[in-house]
Amino acid sequence: MRNYDLTPLYRSAIGFDRLAQLAEHAASNKGNSGYPPYNIESLKDNRYRITMAVAGFTMDELDITSEGEKLVVKGIKVAEDKSRKYLYQGIAERGFERTFQLADYVTVTGADLENGLLNIELQREIPEALKPRKIEIGKSRVLESE
User: Fold this and answer.
1) Which among 138, 75, 70, 54 is positioned nearest to 103, based on CA atoms?
2) Residue 104 class from Cβ within 10 Å (0-12 exposed, 13-18 middle, 19+ buried)?
3) Are 96 and 74 within 8 A, CB to CB?
4) Which residues make Cβ contacts (< 8 Å) with residue 146, sequence separation at least 6?
5) Where in the chain is the domain with CATH 2.60.40.790?
6) Helix (H) or strand (E) holding 62
7) Looking at the domain that runs over 32-126, which CATH code has it been given?
8) Residue 15: left (phi > 0), alpha (psi -120 to 50), or beta?
9) Backbone angles phi, psi at 134, to 5 degrees
10) How far is 117 from 136, CA to CA, in rounded Å?
11) d(CA 107, CA 40)
């Protein structure tokens, strides 16, 4: 695996430190496994959905936290049923923690669990001050110096 030194970016760019942190996080992978599998969909303009396959988890065993630009989804299995004797266990019942980096102004609007799939709805809400606006062309006032 290659290591990239992003120090020059920190020295010469103002306000891009979050971008550099995202690049470092993506490059490091920090031991994230592919469990649980998930999809990220773009639904409509500025609306998204994360769908995670969480077979075997109940609503009480799942925790979703949105903090700043991070979305953390945790699955915490309660004590397993010792009375069961598996010949083969293909459904993973281990806990997990999956972190997603959210872009600016993306918020979680809801979540539901149905048929073993956890759906998390997200929406980007751009503030009015940052939206494009039409500038009318008209007579400009020239300030006259006295």
Assistant:
1) 70
2) exposed
3) yes
4) none
5) 32-126
6) strand 62-67
7) 2.60.40.790
8) left
9) -80, 130
10) 49
11) 15
pTM: 0.69
Bridge partners, 113 (sequence order): 118
User: pLDDT tens for residues 89-132?
Assistant: 887 778 999 999 898 889 999 999 999 999 999 999 888 887 78
Q: Cα-Cα-Cα-Cα dihedral of 2, 5, 10, 15, to 10°?
A: 0
Amino acid identity at 132 = P
124 closest CA partner among 108, 144, 143: 108
- The structure tokens listed for 129 are 């001050």
Going by their DSSP bridges, the two strands 70-75 and 62-67 should be labelled as antiparallel
Written as six digits, the tokens of 19 are: 């971008």
